[in-house]
Amino acid sequence: MKGVPLNEELYNYIVSTFAKEDDILKQVVDQAASKKFPLIQISPENGKFLYMLIKIINAKRVLEIGTLTGYSSIWMARALPEGGKLTTLEINPDHAEEARKNFKNAGLDNKIELILGSAMESLNKLLSEKFDFVFIDADKTGYPAYFDKVIGVMNKGGLITADNTLRDGDVVKENADEGTKAVQVFNKKVANDQRVESLLVPISDGLTVCWVK
Predict the structure, then answer these.
(1) In sequence order, which residues have a C-beta less than 8 Å from that of residue 78 and are 6 or more positions away?
(2) Rounded Cα–Cα distance for residues 33 and 45 (Å)
(3) Would you kindly state where each structural domain of the chain is located, as residue ranges?
(4) Can you give the pTM of this predicted structure?
(5) Distance between terminal CA atoms of the chain?
(6) Can you name the residues that pair with 85 across neighbouring β-strands?
(7) With the C-alpha atoms ordered 45, 99, 123, 158, is the resulting torsion angle positive or negative?
(8) Are 182 and 143 contacting, i.e. CB atoms less than 8 angstroms apart?
(9) 3-state helix, strand, coil in the chain (%, to 5)
(10) How would CATH label the architecture of 8-212?
(11) Percent of the chain topping pLDDT 70
(12) How far apart are CA 53 and CA 56, in angstroms?
């Protein structure tokens, strides 16, 4: 059995029952819309899933590649224990400024460090640190290289996650765009890398989850 097809009624049931947004999360989305920022933040159920994964493995150090305006950052930072820290990387200064405002409004600015600049350059500055959980949600063409970079900073038993790995269903197409081709490479890479156990979870637009051995 392939599973139950997720129609709109079932989707709304899941979100309203298990992943209802509070006023702060709603405001992050509303403000992004009012300022004409891309509305490409993760879905509520995806946010709740990341939150739960962080809780389950008792992660204390989280790394996010791709902040946007901080919607996913807030979901994840809320899962951290006292003394936990989330480091998030963003290349767009306007997005970063908005995200910092959102972190402060959510009362999480003491748990979140935002690094502005190219993700690869920022990652090179973090090579001496160790992380329990990584969430990749930036330019899709960079996914394979991001994995190669972050695998070296992971604690054993940690999780590397990557969003949009179904690419709206295009991940199975041969003649895909460059971003989708890179995601295809990423999925195949982590499925066969002996350092991790991986699975593409069909939640939202697909979340590939890699457990570090």
Answers:
(1) 51, 106, 108
(2) 20
(3) 8-212
(4) 0.96
(5) 30
(6) 61
(7) negative
(8) yes
(9) 45, 20, 35
(10) 3-Layer(aba) Sandwich (3.40)
(11) 100
(12) 5
Contacts 24+ apart (CB under 8 A), 45-48: 45/14, 45/15, 45/18, 45/19, 45/203, 45/204, 46/72, 46/163, 46/203, 46/204, 46/207, 47/19, 47/71, 47/72, 47/75, 47/76, 48/18, 48/19, 48/75
CA torsion sign, 63 to 130 to 207 to 56? negative
What are the pLDDT digits (tens) for 157-207? Answer: 999 999 999 999 999 999 999 999 999 999 999 999 999 999 999 999 999
Tens digit of each residue's pLDDT (9 = 90 or more) over 94-128: 999 999 999 999 999 999 999 999 999 999 999 99
Backbone angles phi, psi at 117, to 5 degrees: 140, 180
Binned at pLDDT 50, 70 and 90, residue 1 comes out as low
Average pLDDT over residues 86-97: 97
